[in-house]
Predict the structure.
Amino acid sequence: MRLAHLGPRGTYTEAAALAFAPDAELMPVATVTAAVAAVEAGQADAAVCAIENAIDGSINETIDLLLREDGHLHVRGEVVLAIHHALVGPPGLDVSAATVVYSHPSALGQCRRRLAEFAPNARAVAALSTAAAIESSMKETGALAVGNRLSAELYQATIYAEDIADEPGNETRFVVLGHEDAARTGNDKTSIAFTTHHDRPGSLVEVLGIFSRRGINLTRIESRPTRRALGTYVFLVDLLGHRDDPPVAEAIEEARGVTLWMRVLGSYPRWLGTRA
């Protein structure tokens, strides 16, 4: 299997790709959009993309790619990783005097308070990935980066502090996107997206009630702007069960009748691996 993922070497997404398929041929690319494009072009079999973090919330780039009108990829798997951010940089640096700290925007958001404590005078600068951030910090006087231990070792950076996330229990969920979703395993999840009748009171409750009446557990719900009119939203829902399970299939069919638009984003096995 060829797996496209956010690179370069040493990113959390690379770790997620290896957790999903240890024997896969890894294809590091510069952005999440490039990873999805590689699958669409047939250069990769699937793309591994971060979709939500326990501290910083949703990864909008991945969600927006899933919701594209011309998009045709499906969620075929998920991986949940424990995230251990480290503060790293060139050897011999006075951390409190650092002037800049590089990292992926998500990582910067997850460590905002702790970074202010460690390096109060450092401005946060976004990088394409945590690994690229460490690489940049090694080339600049007075620069730090937020990344993981593997990346620090790859770039021979010094680790000045470990586990610097603002909250404990930091985890990121990654989805695996391909042209087809996965077959039933008996322990699955399904992701759907829909829009409601925005001018009709109770339209969202009506949709959610369809799943509730069948005892289908919804594990995640959020909204994203439709990008067409202010105050209109796409709702994204993860639920337990496979789209081919009769109760789930019946609920989805009924929900289609009361929504403006609905898309099944994919069914896939629940992640039961080690969060490491």
Summary: The mean pLDDT is 94. Residues 246-256 form the longest helix (11 residues).
